[in-house]
Design brief:
alpha+beta, 4-stranded antiparallel β-sheet, 11 helices, 6 strands
Length: 433
Amino acid sequence: MKKFFAILLIILLSSNTAFCIEEVKKVYLEEAIEAALKNNIDLQAQKFEINIAKNKIKAANRLQNPSLDAFYFLGAAGRSEPKQLGVSQNIEIFKRSARKNLAKSHLALVEKNVDYTKFDLKMDVREAYINLVAAKSILFTLEQQQELQEELLQIAENRVKSGKVPEIDAIQAKIALNQLITQVNTSKVNVKNALYEFNKIINDPNNVVYDSKDKIFSEENNFDEMLTPPPDYKFPEISVIITKLLNNRFDIQIAKQEIDVAEKNLIMVSRQRIPDIELTGGYAYQLGAYTDTGHFNNGAYAGASLVNIPLFYNYAPEIQNATYKLRQAELKYNSVQNKAIKDITSAYETFLTAAENLKHYETQILTDSEELIEVSKKSYEQGKSDITALIVMKQSYKSIIVGYTNALTDYYNSWTNFLREINDEDFDLEEDL
């Protein structure tokens, strides 16, 4: 029996472990964006706002519910007054349509906000994907440098054994190697953190871990794969971009829709001053014992009342506040437009600077550095220079490669930031300008 329970426990533990295993899915940037749009929990939650706004339109279009009335007179009044059974209905005058129009305008605003959230999510995924690939690229560079430093240590130890150089050369090479090992360890943690951030933004509730493709940054970059134009493109003037793309921004569209909401709200509030009509109708009867003729009398009755007359209270504070809100919305729209021009200009200039820096790295710094490090290595092997100079050169070369990776990251991220400012993830320089 004990053996049976032991086997059962092992099976349960192994099955639980299997359920906890997370699927790792390597994706390109476009696939990552699609996964986020499909699975992101926050986005799914916000989409319910659209359904809520649609139901508010139905609620705004409602008719007032009727009231059932009954009048049964007692005592002496019951002998002279008829009993009555009827219905009363409040008829709103010019209020229902205004309320419905406001709800429709609010729905349009909610839809624009959801679209803005989708767009913002796409930009966040782009940025997180780029940062993940950049972290992997830096790790790859440092691991390569570690291998080269291990080779250098081997060369130094061989030269020490042959008596060509003092033992301090091997010690210096070993210190430099240990420094690189710590940098590699830190870089591995940075890759993990970038991966966590990437998956936090995708925010998939399923047991799926999304990872970038293994392809890392290199000199032969696939800019199409990263959805970014090449840095040697002839970029247009900022004035052309602002003229064509300013009104594409979601915040400008949202601010404009907020004006429409405020206008509809002012109309709705102002119509509260219009009195409503209450219609009353029903059946009345009087028993024969209480009539002069001794016969049973019956018939219908109808009435109308003018209700909610703005005599003691005319809704002036509500109307005034609605007017203030409209003015606020108009000022916000002007402010958003004004800030948008500055944001787009700043983002575009940053992008152009990043393009220049990247081109300078690719055409000047990288080529010269590679030649210099090869010459320095051969010079040390041939005994024409000391190890200190070679180590300094290697550290400088490492800094240059890491700097190039950072320049490439800045270039990709500055393009993403530019798209974020113009609010157009499908922007194409050739087609859209």
